[in-house]
Amino acid sequence: MKTSELKSKSNQELETQLSELQKELIKLNTQVATGTTLKSPGQVKKVKKSIARLMTQLQK
What we know:
Shape: elongated
Structural class: mainly alpha
């Protein structure tokens, strides 16, 4: 997700996307905790970065 894409979205859209990403992060963390192998190991990092970008954009 690029910052230019985030700038064009409304706050409501950003909040919706943020809640979806947070739910996805919870699912990924439970998979890691239970020992299930992830499809791509870097997925957790990507989701965390996307959440950080969204939160930064919401604060502006």
